[in-house]
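Researcher: Please generate the 3D structure of the following complex. Treat every line as part of one assembly.
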Amino acid sequence: MKTGNVATIAPTPDNPTTSRSRRSHRPGRSGRDAWFLLLPALLPILVFNVYPLLRGIYLGFTDARAGLNQDIHFTGLENYSDLLSNDLFWSSFRIGLIWAFGVTFLQFVAALGLALLLNENLRLRWLARTLSLVPWAMPPVVVAIVWRLVYDPNSGPISGLSQTLGFGQLNLLGDFSTALPAVIVVGVWVGMPQTTITLLAGLQGVDGTLHEAAAVDGAGSWRRFLHITLPELRTVIVAITSLNFIWNMNSFDLIYVLTNGGPGGRTMLPTLFAYNEGFRYGHFGVAAAMGNVLVVIICGILLFYLRSRLKGADK
Amino acid sequence: MKITRIAAVTASVAVALALTGCGAGSDDSGDKGGKVTLKFQSLAFQDTTVKATKDIVAAWNQAHPDVHVDYVQGSWDSVQDQLTTQFQGGTAPDIIQYESAGITGFAQQGYLADLGDKLGDVKSDVPDPIWKTVTVDDKIVAAPTLLQSYIVFANTDLLKKAGVTVPTGDTWSWDDLRAAAKAATKDGTYGLGFGLSQPTASMLSFGLNFGGTYFTGSGDDADVKVGDAELAVPERIHQMAYDDKSLDPVTLTQSGSDVMTAFLKGKYALTVQGSYAAQTLAESAPADFHWAALPVLAGDSADQSANPQTMSVAAESKHVDDAADFIDFYMKAENLAKVAEGDWLIPASTSAAEQVKTDTKDANGWPTILASLDHLVAAPFQSVTNYPQWKDQIATPAFQKYLGNDISADELAKELEDGWKSVNGG
Amino acid sequence: MSLQRPSTAVRTGQYVALLGYVVFLGFPLIWLLSTALKSTKEIALGSIRLIPDAPTLDNFSAAVAKANLWQAGFNSLVVAVATTVLTVVIALPAAYGLARYRTILRPITLGWVLVSQMFPTILVIIPLFMILKTLHLLDQLPGLVVVYVVYVLPFCLWMLFGFVQTVPPDIEEAAAIDGAGRIRTLVSIVLPLLRPGIVATALFAFISSWNEFMFALVLIQTPDKVTLPLTLSRFVGAEGQVQLGPLAAAALLATIPSLVFFALIQRRLSGGLLSGAVKG
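Model: Done. Output below.
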């Protein structure tokens, strides 16, 4: 579940704490009380979230598969050596990376543009703002349906327009070369809300006096954007793009309904591939191993990204 | 702490409420005072078939007060994942509808009951080649119910306008189809529309036209060989689309029903469809739209693969015998004929086929459709364990790429063969 | 915060860009509405007009009659409401505990919120499937509720934690000095202050579980127990026989509840909460 979607509507926990932290140590309030209060929350999380996760990681090292009365055997790294030679998996990985990077980047650019506009005093701002939030409230399945209608070769507006202009019918989701770009557009659309709102909040936090000072020095708006707005937004940008990248890498519902990986596996994201491996063909161990590989690679990319970003911040 | 106690009480009350609230009506199937309840997961999706199937269930329930059958609606689209999870989770229905190419894997995993000595009269009523499609490791794991063949439908007005005589006779050759499509292609009308977004089933089936079997061996030891015989039909389609330009290439990325919609608008003179598409024509074609079902396509032979829909019983069902009895009942000529007419498919049993012939009075292309039953034979791919995975992951993308003019015929052959090794080896 | 008034050219450019965004974001929604109101015939003809020739509600009645939409809608509602209630009941005391006591649990819980985002659902769902099977909760709506509660909980905890922190402990102390009991202080003074937070958390839990797809896909198998997203996803696929009109109508109906709740949350979004959200 993409829980972080409303990251932005929670008030920040850290701001008001400072005035109070010394009071938290008052006598009479022991840590034991905290445990009691937290237990009803922690217990289910342990049983239904932490344990399955650990178990899932372990399954990635076994030969678990569907079948009546199948025993599970520990097989070490066998799944991974098999995966190494599984071209389909790697090609789905490549698609996943194109998708995740493409969507995250375009999402960021589009959302930053919109956030900048929304930060200006424009008429009709409310409309764009409301519209930019709506995809968040829609079930991903519905979003996929909406876009299937838009892309429909027979009755969709895009194909219709193309026919009217004499370019013939277009099957954007069915054509090999256009399927991935077409679903990336949907990915951008659906991810606009949290990115825009986060960036907008960041923009509103930029100190106005900095801009004024720069303007007095004769800096144009583009230069002010580059030298003031962007650096000020750095933390927000790093946070939201990292999260977006994780979510996009792990996304499933949208593609499952839009293309189910087709045509010809051109939109087969790794999560969908792993789902099929597990729940279509019954190879649970291999599916879990794919999940493990996914986690490791996501971590690796994030680590690299965060390190390079933070290094840049030190300078 | 009082607070925690209150919280705990509130939480448990809420949980209890939620559980009882949602749990109501989720009674386990099973015995209620000696009464047996069976779950039948049906994949019927056309209104007429759903009704026909529900009628059969109702008739059974009336005749068998002790064995109640519950109709449960499934869907063709998700049936593979759904059955995998249901079997694994122990929640599989007692009576399972699917198709022969799909059940081999489940049978080998031990999930399907052996019906060999449990089915009655239908044993002799269904031709032997069709029984072969539901036999896994010498066990009969399903009853074959309905089959489809691929049929060419023609917009006879367009054909006549192009000066092509509407073919008659028992079979029609691929060369004639190609010539007709070429003749009928002009002014924005393509000769042929062929919905091949899911190409594997039809390509493997038409492969038999030229003796192409794709697989040798069975079970886990099978191997894929793709030679001239296998490539004959794909190459012809490719030539029509890209050399003759008599086949609209957009249709190769569309589903059969999408192409049918355009066919009804007069965009194509001919279309290759599953036999069931006759229903759309019979029910939705405007009065001034003249169409015909053409004789079955043939290369060296007119053989197509028989991939019947099936009815199986879950091995873990507590009432295998009762479930088998229901399948027997479902297979009765008058019942099977009703379902076949609803879906416009070919019944697997000869007596039911006779019944359909009488009921439909030879209208709406039924004679052609029923005649194709003689050409349906068991194909090797049905007894191959990892066929579904090869189909999804290898064959479908490879055929799509070839039909999309992305790869050559040699590359197609190589992808199909190498892909099998990676799927079957892993 | 614009300093000097932007030139007309800049303003025009801004409006053109804004219009572009409005079209990109809004057009698919309008097309959904338009398709839902078109007749089957008009859809089949491939008309690209936004306003239907003869608007009709046929698709809505077809959608409601065809798919088991009511049953699925009811299931979704039961699951979403149960998830919401349970989540709030569990998260409220926990968030209070987190905010008022500095224990090792705070960094662990908050860390978990972030870490749990990293893992693809596929990794969790296979073992979860087996655990629920053992507990006889597989293919049961209560099982789905349990899973949803657990998966929205970390984030709800975090949200509520933030809200509790905005309530100064001094208020509680003042009430305590006035002789009010601990429980009374919490119920009559702290709880009302937390109302906006509770509402926001509840709405989040509701929308998340109303929209969720993958867990339901794997954990629910019997057709009369499926939730709305599942029904809709199968509506799409039914063997090439997709009727776009009823599909659009059904999709539209399925979105209404979350849109309504969203409208409620949206007002909160435009309030003061937003501004402080991501600073620091």
